Automatic annotation (TrEMBL):
PANTHER family: NARDILYSIN, PROTEIN YHJJ. Keywords: Hydrolase, Metal-binding, Metalloprotease, Protease, Zinc. Pfam families: Peptidase_M16, Peptidase_M16_C. Residues 24-64 are annotated as: Disordered. Residues 95-217 form the Peptidase M16 N-terminal domain. One of its GO terms (biological process) is proteolysis. Residues 258-438, 736-914 form the Peptidase M16 C-terminal domain. Its cofactor is Zn(2+). One of its GO terms (molecular function) is metalloendopeptidase activity. This is Insulinase family protein. It comes from Haloferula rosea.
Length: 989
């Protein structure tokens, strides 16, 4: 269920998260992402020489003396993580090295620049982000066409392993190296150094990239972004933040000369503003030596750029009602907001822990909104409360609710009174105990899992602490701090924290809606003031219920067992027919994934009930289990590592969760109870119905609607894979509509239990036998009518056009080529997947790099493992509606060229090497073993063999094989062209 974020906060975070301008998203579509042959890589890589002479990058002038920035621990009593090695170079550049062996033989590099769009001048708006692109387009050691192919040949995928983003106050470059060879490390450190001061900023390359940036601006345009601009301008009108969104202005993107780029680069890409992060399976000595070699010669300019004056942040005073509206907004939201200037404090033990009681108070308030939302007739979907420090410039307090059915008038008293109830009466002991248990468990788990944290996650986490000026403390220190603090936190201290933060503060009551009501501000104010006259009462203490499902009858036994010793997998069949796959691993400490794969799922969905799978998911997930509502379970499981979710997959139902060795029995008990006693509670039905208008609003005004329609069309408009045309269909569904379908498989369907993670089989087997082993007899094989696996793919060649209602000038060009699917055809599908990677790279070179017509061209192979012969190659581009015909034509022509002339050996290797690097990494990923190997392996034992031979098979793929596939499928007469564009209204005509 959607948990709405604070109104202004959600938009601010959109600016620094979703609108952190990524150079290129991961290239793999979900589903859906002739050039001259690239010369072979040079033999010498130390140092890496440019393949052709290049002009020098912008000069940074005479170096200035600098005093290195202090690390935050200099002003703190908090101990730093003893495994971290901190240092700085004479030029002021800081670095931190953190040895970490998971995954083995890999290292993650991050270069943090303490500069973003806030540092731009008025005639540079967008240059900081534009620069982030330009460092990839020609540097001291790499020509514009050389860097990405050089990386690919070493197994580094553009987007997946190398990426970057620009925010308001930082620019970050990220590079994950798939091995620790000298060639790889030399490349990585040379690339990062070139990012720092080696960009050539050739005028012709800047001009070529302008179209890419404009396309990115188009692809990121949305109603949410436009509302964000409105809210910034209204709430902090005198702040520079409102005038420095990272994407910039179209005028600057189109016309800014090289000098503006060079000026920003010289002033702000300076070692005094840089922090380099190295995390991985590398010794601190080796890393330090390489950092010094790569970066010691960086110089600071004589006159570096200054930190900007961000302008005034006006503290919220008194009460004011505000309304923001747009007919395309997905949901109606209501919130109370307070803004004040940020008070800079060092990251000390006292200051860090002082925030904990307020955080707990806000969390409880969010849970209360969640409970109110489930009440019959409630006008809200949920809510939240928070305090956030942003850009070390302002502190924002926010209490918000998401409104159901646009009933904002009814939601105002809910928001006001529940917030006031907390301010007047505080919190119950049970509420405090629940939050304490969850917080403590989180920190305990961080300690237990410390040794198997992934290097890329640690590196990215370190980067987040830099601008926040937080000390890098260890999980053990964090646990000690929190444990000691929680001992002294009571309902009274949380109540005092809430009052201290919110009492005597002015607030803005903000409504975000599709339309601004007539006299809306006056109505809001009147409703709010009237609500304040209503008396509120103290919350009642509640008693914690005991878990009701610990005995499922006589435990089962094992009737057959076999070992796949080379894969470390134990395969069992229990006395009741339940199949079990166990895969113990040691690369995710104290974590266990559990999945029950049940019956035939979506294949047997009633054909007269389109979209009922979404209803079923909401009701089963939100309905709790027999004796316990979802809120009961939340309280019972507080402090435990038990999670569970339900989903309708194409050919099975899934109950899945994550747990620990200590809680595996409770996890299995909970899942077994959910299987035997699904809740079907009215509150789950009501919550789903509240979301239906939001779902249809999004389908109506975004490309999600046409994409959903296209998915159904590709499957012959089979009702099992389509969505209702009107909300009334979904709103009419009742639990009785899903009971027969769900319970047929829940009680009599095949059942495969898969467990992957940190466990010992002999220790958990008794728990398996006492839970899933104790249920009624199950068939060992499905009796599914195989006709249900058939759908009719559209005949090619053909074209299809979809329209949607929006003022956002954004469309999509999609081209699809039918291929065999992955079902019982994985070997060929691997080759189609590799062909898709080659095709996607050609799209990138032609559409993005040459034409600048789309920001993120995507291509890949897709299909279904449930449906027979359902597969395709797909190309997808997002751009302006005017560009869609050209993009469609380019995709068809590039595919035709690939079919006619074939790929090159170099293209094959540049696609294969990153794939092999990722395959090696997935061998230490529990999710890979669960999803790709174990799940469904009793029905299809070939999945084990596919796992065994996948690397050898991929290495054996020949150019002849791929070119034959291209010649077979990527010909123009096989192309299905889909155009998705905004609907042209009469006014626009």
């Amino acid at each position: 269920m959607r948990n709405p974020a604070p109104i202004i906060l959600s938009l601010l975070l959109a600016a620094v998260a979703a609108f952190l301008i990524l150079r290129k998203p991961d290239p793999e579509p979900e589903p859906p992402q002739a050039e001259p042959t690239v010369s072979e890589p040079a033999e010498s890589t130390d140092p890496i020489e440019p393949s052709e002479p290049s002009p020098e990058p912008p000069s940074q002038g005479i170096t200035a003396e600098v005093t290195p920035r202090e690390w935050p621990q200099a002003d703190s009593d908090l101990p730093v993580d003893e495994n971290a090695v901190f240092g700085h170079l004479d030029n002021g550049m800081r670095y931190v090295i953190y040895p970490n062996s998971e995954p083995p033989n890999r290292v993650s590099l991050r270069l943090h620049i303490d500069a973003g769009s806030l540092m731009e001048e008025e005639d540079q708006r967008g240059v900081a982000h534009f620069l982030e692109h330009m460092v990839f387009n020609g540097s001291k050691n790499f020509t514009p066409d050389e860097l990405i192919p050089r990386m690919q040949r070493l197994g580094i995928a553009f987007g997946a392993h190398v990426n970057a983003y620009t925010s308001f106050n930082e620019t970050v470059y990220m590079l994950d190296l798939p091995d620790l060879s000298d060639e790889m490390l030399n490349l990585g450190f040379t690339v990062m150094r070139d990012f720092g001061d080696g960009a050539l900023l050739k005028p012709e390359e800047i001009d070529k990239e302008r179209g890419v940036i404009l396309s990115e601006k188009t692809s990121r345009d949305s109603v949410g972004y436009r509302l964000m601009e409105q809210q910034f301008s209204t709430l902090i009108p005198d702040s520079l933040i409102t005038k420095r969104f990272p994407i910039g202005t179209e005028e600057v993107i189109r016309t800014a000369p090289r000098e503006r780029f060079a000026d920003f680069y010289e002033k702000y890409y300076t070692p005094a503003r840089m922090t380099f992060v190295v995390v991985g399976d590398i010794s601190p000595e080796d890393a330090k030596t390489r950092i010094e070699k790569a970066f010691a010669s960086l110089t600071n300019p004589q006159v570096p750029g200054d930190d900007p004056d961000l302008g005034a942040i006006e503290t919220t005073d008194g009460f004011e009602a505000l309304i923001f509206s747009d007919k395309e907004v997905a949901s109606t939201d209501l919130g109370l907001l307070s803004i004040e200037e940020f008070e800079p404090l060092p990251d000390t033990r006292e200051n860090r822990l002082s925030k904990l009681p307020l955080m707990m108070a806000h969390s409880i308030l969010g849970l209360r909104f969640s409970e109110i939302a489930k009440e019959e007739g409630s006008p809200i979907l949920g809510g939240s409360a928070s305090r956030q420090d942003l850009f070390r410039e302002m502190t924002i307090g926010s209490v918000d609710v998401s409104v159901a059915d646009d009933r904002w008038e009814d939601a105002v008293p809910v928001l006001e009174q529940e917030f006031r109830r907390a301010l007047e009466f505080g919190f119950t002991r049970a509420e405090i105990a629940e939050i304490k248990a969850n917080i403590l468990n989180t920190y305990e788990q961080a300690v237990r899992t410390k040794d198997t944290r992934r290097s890329d996650g640690i590196a990215t986490g370190f980067v987040r602490t830099i601008n926040e000026e937080r000390v890098l403390t260890s999980p053990e220190t964090d646990l000690e701090l929190v444990s000691s603090a929680l001992e002294n936190i009571t309902s009274e201290t949380c109540h005092e924290a809430l009052k201290s933060f919110w009492n005597d503060k002015g607030v803005k009551l903000i409504l975000t809606a599709k339309e601004e009501p007539e006299n809306g501000k006056e109505q809001l104010t009147k409703l709010y003031e009237a609500s304040k006259e209503t008396e509120v009462t103290a919350p009642e203490e509640s008693e914690l219920k005991s878990f009701a499902y610990t005995d499922f009858g006589e435990a089962g036994t094992i009737t057959s067992q076999e070992e796949a010793e080379d894969l470390g997998i134990t395969r069992l069949v229990l006395s009741n027919g339940v199949a079990v796959n166990l895969k113990p691993t040691d690369f995710d400490k104290d974590r266990i994934l559990v999945q029950a794969r049940i019956g035939n799922g979506g294949l047997t969905q009633p054909t007269d009930k389109p979209g009922i799978g979404d209803f079923a998911t909401a009701v089963i997930e939100g309905g709790g289990i027999g004796e316990h509502s979802s809120d009961d379970l939340r309280q019972i499981l507080a402090g435990k590592n038990v999670s569970f979710g339900f989903s309708v997959q194409e050919d099975y139902f899934s109950l899945a969760g994550e747990t620990t060795p200590d809680d595996i029995l409770l996890q299995l008990q909970t899942m077994t109870a959910q299987l035997l006693f699904p809740g079907y509670r009215p509150e789950a039905v009501n919550q789903f119905r509240k979301t239906v208008p939001m779902i249809f609003q999004q389908l109506k005004h975004t490309t999600a609607g046409p994409m959903q329609q296209m998915g159904g069309w590709l499957r012959g408009n089979d009702p099992r894979f389509t969505f209702p045309d009107t909300p009334e269909v979904l709103l009419a569904y009742e639990p009785a509509d899903i009971k027969e379908w769900i319970e047929r498989d829940f009680t009599n369907g095949t059942l495969e239990l898969n467990i992957v993670g940190d466990f010992k089989p002999d220790e958990i087997l008794p728990h398996v036998l006492a839970t899933f082993g104790a249920i009624d007899k199950r068939p060992e094989a499905s009796e599914l009518d195989q006709a249900l696996r058939q759908v009719e793919f559209p005949k090619a060649p053909t074209t299809k056009k979809y329209e949607f209602e929006t003022k956002i000038p954004q469309g999509q060009a999609v081209v699809i080529w039918k291929t065999p699917g992955p079902r019982n055809n994985q070997k060929e599908f691997r080759r189609l997947n590799l062909l898709g990677e080659i095709f996607g790279d050609r799209l990138r070179e032609e559409i993005r790099e040459k034409l600048g017509a789309a920001y993120s061209p995507q291509a890949g192979a897709g299909g279904s493992t449930a449906l027979e012969d359902f597969g395709y190659l797909i190309a997808l581009n997002t751009s302006t509606p005017e560009a869609i015909p050209q993009l469609t034509e380019v995709c068809v022509n590039l595919a035709s060229q690939l079919a006619k002339e074939g790929a090159t050996e170099d293209e094959l290797e540049r696609a294969r090497k990153p794939l092999l690097a990722d395959m090696e990494k997935t061998l230490r990923d529990n999710n890979y073993w669960m999803r790709s190997v174990l799940s469904g392996s009793h029905e299809d034992p070939e999945k084990l063999e596919l796992c065994r031979n996948r690397q050898e098979d991929v290495e054996s793929i020949t150019l002849e094989e791929l070119n034959k596939l291209a010649a077979t499928y990527l010909v123009p007469e096989n192309a299905i062209q889909v155009v998705i564009i905004p609907e042209v209204t009469e006014e626009e005509e």
